[in-house]
Design a protein that fits this description.
The protein is an alpha/beta fold. It has a single domain, classed as Alpha-Beta Complex (Maf protein), CATH 3.90.950.20. Strands 2-1-3-4-5 form a five-stranded mixed sheet, sandwiched between helices. It is globular. 42% of the residues are buried.
């Protein structure tokens, strides 16, 4: 794991510790790299409950609750699947937050519609999810490293911007942000 990932993971750790919140991961193409970066920080067991490596579509469907019709219609490499992976991980792992990744790291597996290097990242909670699309192919190892770092960065940004409203302030939660950052 690179130095940048460790620094971001440490910041995530501090915020989750302070807020007493929990995190899980749902990873396809990254194969557990995001979880590895999270647990690299001592004390992660206080806030990191676990991760699901859902490389096969049946695991996305059966464990994370991703709609099989969605995968059949749009493939597993789409924004909507990434969003469902986050929500499914929050539910199955009983966490406050989750980070998800689904894509084609390469060197093979791409199509003209979904080329190698296409990776959807998502993070959030059961009510609010933010996404980001990576589209460039730098080779498998670099693609996975970029996806891992970007997933951590976007989750850190999500945490920094996530302010839980007080019960009496009248604010409503539940918005899902669709689209790349």
């Amino acid at each position: 794991m690179d130095f940048e990932s460790k620094i971001i993971s440490r910041e995530i750790s501090q915020l989750l510790w302070e807020r007493e919140k929990t995190l899980g991961t749902a990873e396809s193409c990254t194969g557990g790299r995001i979880a590895e970066a999270i647990i690299a920080i001592p004390g992660a067991s206080k806030y990191f409950k676990g991760g699901i490596v859902s490389y096969a579509d049946e695991v996305k469907e059966n464990l994370l609750g991703v709609n099989s019709e969605l995968i059949a219609e749009k493939t597993a490499v789409c924004e909507e699947v990434a969003v469902e992976m986050v929500k499914g991980a929050c539910k199955v792992l009983n966490t406050d937050y989750a980070i998800a990744a689904t894509g084609i790291a390469g060197p093979a597996g791409g199509t003209p519609e979904i080329p190698v290097g296409t990776i959807w990242l998502a993070c959030g909670d059961k009510d609010k999810v933010t996404t980001h699309l990576l589209k460039e192919d730098f080779g498998r190892d670099v693609n996975l490293s970029i996806a891992t770092n970007k997933a951590l960065e976007m989750f850190l940004d999500f945490l920094k911007s996530d302010e839980t409203p007080k019960e009496d302030d009248g604010e409503q939660q539940g918005e899902v942000k669709w689209g790349a950052n």
